[in-house]
Write a structure and sequence with these properties.
Blueprint: E1 32-49, E2 53-59, E3 62-68, E4 77-82, E5 87-88, H1 96-100, E6 114-123, E7 128-137, E8 140-154, E9 162-174, E10 193-209
Antiparallel strand pairs: 1-2, 1-3, 1-10, 2-5, 3-4, 4-6, 6-7, 7-8, 8-9, 9-10
Length: about 220
């Protein structure tokens, strides 16, 4: 259901906002390909349950690649994949997870991968961007938009000798548009599970190695 992407996360398009300290106008994070740091990433989603609460769960196996030049962040490209069988639920009743992965819901046996591919990036602020893309789930591909925020970055550190950038992103989709309509409440009622799915992505990315300082003559 989300966080596509990741990427959720996916939303690495705002590095143009990261500036080096002092008077330098060069971005902290260099241009290049960035890969997801899976130890510092999460993909959480929420869906209305009977109108009483928003049931919250997550996918724990997903991957994202980001190609970006901080000087032209609107040209960034994001691609993400999610393993639906990595679904994690809070204290699920017996058989509940199996039901969600079954034919009435995600049908993970027939559709073992969810994916997101960005199609455009529009800067909406100094550190924010709207990322439009195509999300594929349950064998259906539809447009999905991410609202993303750049949280910071650097070119590297002696204890972390690669460039690093971090983003937060949010989005929504209607599961019925992807052929998953089981349990949606009848019109005028809340008896069921909502159609709209909201998702949140937190993601850090590792990029090009920290340049070596020139040796003294």
């Amino acid at each position: 259901m989300k966080r596509i992407l990741a990427a959720l996360a996916i939303a690495a398009t705002m590095t143009g906002a990261a500036q080096a300290a002092g008077t330098s106008a060069e971005p902290v994070a260099p241009a290049g390909r960035y890969t997801l740091d899976k130890h510092h990433a999460s993909l959480v989603f929420r869906v209305d349950h009977l109108g009483f609460s928003f049931y919250t769960a997550q996918f724990t196996r997903f991957d994202v690649t980001l190609d970006i030049d901080p000087k032209t962040p609107s040209a960034a490209k994001v691609e993400a994949t999610i393993d639906p069988t990595s679904l994690e639920l809070p204290t699920p009743p017996e058989g509940f997870k199996e039901a969600l992965l079954g034919k009435d819901w995600l049908d993970a046996g027939a559709y073992p991968v969810m994916s997101f591919r960005s199609t455009s990036v529009k800067m909406t602020g100094e550190k924010t961007a709207r990322i439009a893309g195509e999300f594929t789930m349950h064998g259906v591909t539809k447009p999905v938009t991410l609202e993303a925020r750049f949280n910071g970055g650097y070119a590297g550190h002696p204890m972390d000798p690669n460039a690093r950038i971090g983003f937060s992103a949010t989005g929504k989709l209607k599961r019925s548009e992807f052929g998953i309509a089981y349990g949606i409440p009848a019109p005028g009622t809340t008896m069921g599970v909502g159609d709209e799915v909201a998702f949140d992505i937190e993601a850090e990315f590792s990029g090009p190695p920290l340049p070596q300082a020139p040796k003294a003559e």
